[in-house]
Amino acid sequence: xxxxANIIWYELMTPDPAGAAxxxxxxxxWTIASxxxxxxxxxxxxxxxxxxxxxxxxxxxxxxxxxxxxxxxLWIGYLEVDDVDAAVDAIKADGGAVQMPATDxxxxxxxxVTDPQGAPFYIMDPIPPLGAPEGTSDVFSMTEPQRIxxxxxxxxxxxxxxxxxxKHFGWGQEGEMPMGxxxxxxxxxxxxxxxxxxxxxxxxxxxxxxxxxxxxxxxDRARAAVAANGGTITNEPMAIPGGEYAMNAIDPxxxxxxxxxxxxx
Length: 265
Known about the structure:
265 residues; alpha+beta; 2,3-Dihydroxybiphenyl 1,2-Dioxygenase, domain 1; 2 domains; eight-stranded mixed β-sheet; 16 strands; globular; Anthracycline_SecMetBiosynth; Glyas_Fos-R_dOase_dom; Glyoxalase; Glyas_Bleomycin-R_OHBP_Dase
């Protein structure tokens, strides 16, 4: 592997993009397009816009066939790789599984896989934007609102998960925070950047999954907006290292999501 794999895109899979637009607009300040992006092809795929004019990710509308096939509301991340097919083969050989085979899209080649414990994610070899061959994704930031600020893997086997992601994606694992009887909250890095953590599967998580935290300008305002717009609070805002607060919720369509930001009141 030439470089550690960045997480370059985030996608909300939901049966109700319009409802998601109302919810995330109120809580985060995003704008989700009211119609499918024609560049994507036959899918109902809509871009998530930030207030600064950039994109925060995309929304895939789950149709009846997808739902009948077992698809459920979910946030999912995309990891950048140089060779999707080789990565798929290596993941399968190491106990992972393929949910969607390698596929060419106008934006690049992608595949959906799961790690050996079952947490799903995409891998992608993106096509650089026209006029920006060295263009880099800015959907993740440790500090900025309206971006994903933290990537948290809840898994049935944290030791195996750390081995898997460090082996296949070049990530580091340095530092941890004790969680009492539950074990450790183990921090992961992409290069020199702390991107998230691996934690034991806790009560309330039916299966291993990646959970993402969106940056908000005010955690208490965001909490009120979640409650007022049909969301369900699953963990109230709690202080985290650095002085900010994090909370967890379920959006009105059923996708789990976290929020992180300062307390201003």
